[in-house]
Amino acid sequence: MQNLLSSTLLPKNLNIKIYGNIIVLVVLYRCETWSLTLREERRLRVFENRVLRRMFEPKRHKVTWNGENYVMRSLYDLYSLPNIFRVIRSRRMRWAGHVARMMESRGVCRVLVGKPEEKRQLERPRHRWEDNIKIDL
Questions:
Q1: Residue 107 pLDDT > 90, yes or no?
Q2: Where are the chain's structural domains?
């Protein structure tokens, strides 16, 4: 898809549609149940920025007065779809509402909301799905 997105033969609005309807859907498959770490968030941000740079081919030498990267600001102005993290948050919240309405006897509800019987290890606790929902709220 790299050659297709960086092609000058296709108009920019078609590239945006291809990115939003094909690439983002594949990348965010089942993102409702993810509990993202900072490393994974950074990787997603790098991926999105790289694809946007390929589509719009901005100039790298321009910098605004406050030091913010002009390139990324102009890319997000050109790109009309929400960024990946907004999509993940909205899907996660929609899935949380769906799980909240489920009966507690269903397997999905028990896995996502249920408490494990074993104690956690003494190291730093990992983010659970429920913790991410509280952060999103």
A1: no
A2: 2-136
